[in-house]
Amino acid sequence: MPLEAPLPAPAERVETLNARYKHHSATSVIERALTDSTIGALAMVSSFGAESVVLLHMVARIDRSVPVIFLDTQMLFQETLDYQVEVSEKLGLTDVRVIHPDANELFKRDPDNILHLADTDACCDLRKVEPLENALTGFDGWITGRKRFQGGKRVDLQFFEAEEGRLKVNPLAHWASEDVRDYMINNRLPRHPLVGRGFPSIGCAPCTSPVKPGEDPRAGRWRGAEKTECGIHFVDGKMQRIGASA
Q: Where is [4Fe-4S] cluster annotated to bind (predicted)?
């Protein structure tokens, strides 16, 4: 059999894909992205955070065997770890890949688990960015839960982006916060237990604090610092530090 021609570079496909799926629903974008030969092999990356269950539910209804990558930084809340197990079992996900930071790198660069106190970016690189890059080896792209209403540079977010040699698929790009809330209610999806305790955005335990009434939902992430992104999202090859995290 003749060898299949390699896919064009992601940047060359983005415009065509966004035009092709411009008027599709979130579910349709997922379903077609998983079968479109011009997109390639996809994984879903999920934090199992405050809103993650919406996209996880959509994916599970289409194909429960889609690989789901969950980054366990080894600094997450126990509630997040428990929620990941609960949601995975409830939705019947069959290929959840729990990824950890490299043990040798942790020993060399953060043996006392205090790197976040001195350099939050370096800590995120060690515990999130590098493990994710390794986990995505062999995939042509990944599915995220990023949305325009999260602000920052996401206000113009499209269904498809090109990033670091891969496609990024954002099925919920055009959703409003009310859409997320209504979907969870209508489908009786379990909420992350920390949401009801004042955590509308949830990351690692040392760097996440409750949000007070009237504060921005992301105020509890890296409180007191300019940092608002963990660094796993890039725009035009540059780390995106503005806006809400996936």
A: 123-124, 204, 207
